[in-house]
Amino acid sequence: MVQKILLLILMGLLFYPIEIFSTGFYKKGGTTIDSLNSHYLNWYNLDAKENKIQGVSVDKAYQELLVGKSPKKKIIVAVIDGGVDVTHEDLEGKIWVNADEIPNNQIDDDQNGFIDDINGWNFLGNASGENLDIENYEFVRILNKYKPLYDTITNAQSLTKEDLENYTLYQRCLKRYNEEIKDITYQLKEFNEFKTKLDSAIALLDIYTKNTKPNLEEIEKVKPRNKQEAEAKKFLRLIFKRGFTYPMLDYESEELNKKLNTSLNLELNGRNVVGDDCYNKNQKNYGNNDVAGPSAEHGSFVAGIIAANRNNNKGINGIADNVEIMVLRAVPDGDEYDKDVALSIRYAVDNGANIINMSFGKEFSPLKNMVDEAILYAESHGVLLVHAAGNEAANCDTMESYPTKRLNDNSNINNWINVGANAKIGNKTLPGVFSNYGQQTVDVFAPGVYIISLFPGSKYDLESGTSFSSPVTSGVAALVWSYYPELTALELKEILLASASRYSKKVYLPNITSYKKTKVKFTTLSVTGGIINAYEALKLAENKTN
What Cα–Cα distance (Å) separates residue 475 from each residue in 53, 163, 213, 234, 301? Predict the structure, then answer.
């Protein structure tokens, strides 16, 4: 998805503002809070009516509804992600601590099956402290598993029922793999053609700019002598005004090649580091207590939105005050494993989590039954699950993305909220151009375009994605539940959805594959047709409990 967006930007074909994509998607490395655009600081906490910002009315709730009130319960939110920097300055006092475990004594003091699990657990590591970082897609792993069995099959009718199901899955994954290879090959071709055109245009004008990487200001000063130079200037002006920056080139090249060398690499087997059999449901004693891992950027960002300190005069303001983050590392750079997700959910439930945030997803789920059983386990223990809808600008009503609330028997679990991403301003670009949607499968929207949150090393960053709409919703859920703990998970979900702020105007349907703009009513993009609202949810919770 990222590569397609950037290629459209580079070619000057995308009509949406570049700022939606130009941060986080290609920029690597955090910075100080002061160096980021304050225009986007904490906007998700603001109110649509009072501030003219499509936030979730958190500040208004604290200022008008919660003054003089004390929360009744500490809410634990389990963040299943790529890891969290638990030492971040803005998460001080906000990290869950396993009080029954003695740190670093190499003993499972609480006998829960995990040694020294002080802040959670890392399912992507081994007992020696080594960690899995980069993985390939699930369909690549399925190909590797079944290729020796089914690659030479010519007559599927001779297969047993079980083998036929596996063979059919193998064929689907093979088709998906070939499609992805074709797509990446095409993107590389387009990228190289763009790079050639860019280099040629710069070379034509370098007599004026005296710079191999001229900026827009230098290009504007150029006075072309002929048609070729005029066309070169026109091209460069266009891409810069669309938001082109030189780091995009390096990132695009790096990502496309990484996709070929890792995500689609049939030879890669990162799981060797972990040392378990990823398809063996009974093999559970693996991992380590390094909950940050080698890549804690995404998880730290998620945790900050939920729980960053509101009153420390540092960084950002998280949504929920009386909350702790339980860290479960299960999402590598690549597709997560079903077994890790299932065991993370069970760990969260068994160790007291009230809410589980899941900002991840994938196309195939070979151990879906195992994940479904874990989800049902969470439901039976009154735990709320909040999930990011995804960033493919796709209709989830017609596209399967895992994990999902729909079980294999086509029934739906009740303790699940699926969240799309909205932008800051209430206009035609309110839904994130990348956001998945679905009138039956996406429950609600929440801020997810141009969000500032945490980056490891007590730094900060700017990102976009439904990955960050999910923790906005988890944060609001935790805020409401901390004041009204008598609510069940199902009652809390019903309150959150019933109190969502409806936006009745027409918007552009999310689209990342073409220039075409289609207008639809925002109310048709989700079950509620609205945006999560902490102020209204707290009012509704008060009415329901009194």
Answer: 18, 44, 43, 46, 13
**Dist. CA 231–CA 518, nearest whole Å:** 31
Angle at alpha carbon of residue 330, lines to 470 and 474, rounded to 5°: 20
Q: How far is CA 154 from CA 148, 149, 229, 417, in A?
A: 14, 12, 59, 44
**Tens digits of residue pLDDT in 35-92:** 999 999 999 999 999 999 999 999 999 999 999 999 999 999 999 999 999 999 999 9
Question: Do residues 108 and 339 lie in contact, with contact meaning Cβ atoms separated by under 8 Å?
Answer: no
Residue 368 φ/ψ, nearest 5 degrees? -60, -40
Query: Domains along the chain?
Result: 39-134+280-545 (3.40.50.200), 139-263 (no CATH)
> Which residues are CB-neighbours of 243 under 8 A, at least 6 positions away?
9, 17, 18, 19, 21, 22
Among 333, 305, 335, smallest CA distance to 319 is for 305
What 3-state DSSP class applies to 406?
Answer: strand
Instruction: State yes or no: cis peptide before 403, omega within 30 of 0.
Output: yes
**Residue 433 has which token pair?**
């151009």
Residues 321-347: tens digit of each pLDDT = 999 999 999 999 999 999 999 999 999
Helix or strand run (H / E) with residue 452: strand 451-455
Asked if residues 48 and 57 have their Cβ atoms less than 8 Å apart, the reply is yes
DSSP state at residue 333: B
Residues in CB range of 104: below 8 A, 6 or more apart = 116
The pTM score is 0.93
Scanning 221-309, the segments in alpha helix (DSSP H) are 227-241, 246-258, 297-307
Helix (H, G, I), strand (E, B) or coil at 475: helix
The closest alpha carbon to 308, from 533, 487, 58, 29, belongs to 58
Looking at residue 1, its amino acid is M
**Torsion angle (degrees, nearest 10) of CA 81, 53, 519, 390:** 0
What is the per-residue pLDDT for 30?
A: 86
Per-residue pLDDT tens over the stretch 231-284: 999 999 988 887 788 888 888 888 888 889 999 999 998 899 999 999 999 999
CA 525 to chain centre: 19
Burial per residue of 170-188, b for 16 or more beta-carbon CB atoms within 10 angstroms, e otherwise: beebbebbeebeeebeebb
- C-alpha dist (Å) from residue 487 to 72, 417, 491, 527, 532: 12, 16, 6, 22, 18
8 A C-beta contact, residue 425 and residue 393: no
3-state helix, strand, coil in the chain (%, to 5): 40, 15, 45
**If you average pLDDT over every residue of the chain, what do you get?**
92
Question: 246 and 213 in contact (C-beta within 8 Å)?
Answer: yes
52, exposed or middle or buried, with CB in 10 Å at 0-12, 13-18, 19+?
A: exposed
Q: What is the pLDDT of residue 27?
A: 47
Higher pLDDT residue, 257 or 457? 457
